[in-house]
Amino acid sequence: MQIGMIGLGRMGMNMAKRVLQGGHQVVAYNRTPNKTEEIVKEGATGSFSLTELVERLSAPRVVWLMLPAGKPVDDHLEQLKDMLSSGDMVIDGGNTYFKDDIRRFEMLAEKGIKFMDVGVSGGIWGLEVGYCMMMGGGRQTFEYLKPIFETLAPKDGYLYCGPIGAGHFVKMVHNGIEYGMMQAYGEGFAILEGSPYADSLDYSKVAHLWNQGSVVRSWLLELLETAFARDARLEEIRGYVEDSGEGRWTVQQAVESGVSAPVIALSLFGRFSSRQKDGFADKVLAALRREFGGHSVVYSKDK
Prior knowledge:
This protein is of the alpha/beta class.
């Protein structure tokens, strides 16, 4: 299958590489040409404008966006809707707010262009182990695109979730849960760090231990083991934790639905407070975001 990939950042670049490794054709475009040139070396066809990308795709065209949520997606779709034809397909694989999907779906439908929202989890490790993906949109469009989804995902790693917006909605809740899990790990290790036993504990070994049959075992703990092995007390980074939107949207949805979600809400507020202090729990969160997503951290030397 042939696919146009727009956006070659941390996720988009590795996804394009995995699609190529699966035997598909990739026509790639990135705002900065050096990223396009990089993926060309892996076997992709490079494009240096949206017009060029569309011209190099065969009908029905498939275009996958891996862009920051919000205005960048709208800006690209405004251009693409006048370049693409009826029957072409656009996929938004970024961390988009599900209500934006509904608006964009309606805009593209006026031109006969099909649209799917795909929530993607896997971070910088997806190239190696595959991406967990949650899809929303037309069922027929989903079935047509299955070869790409099967290439990107590990076994049982993708799911059709329902009509437009459903994929990003499920991914939003997934990230809300992630906020709560990370907060619990951060607080737990902060309690260890503040205990009389802190000097005798190797946190990398503790994280490893808790992954051996424990009920709290997880991939996040594997990543913490790596982070602590690199920096035993996380002294090189500050406990400054950003949020990229999904936690806020999850809490907002809980309010709209009248659903009690105190753990997720407090974990979001904890990220806000991290920007005003430098606690050990927040260092754990910052380290985890770096390990799974390649997100930037604020280093202690930058204080």
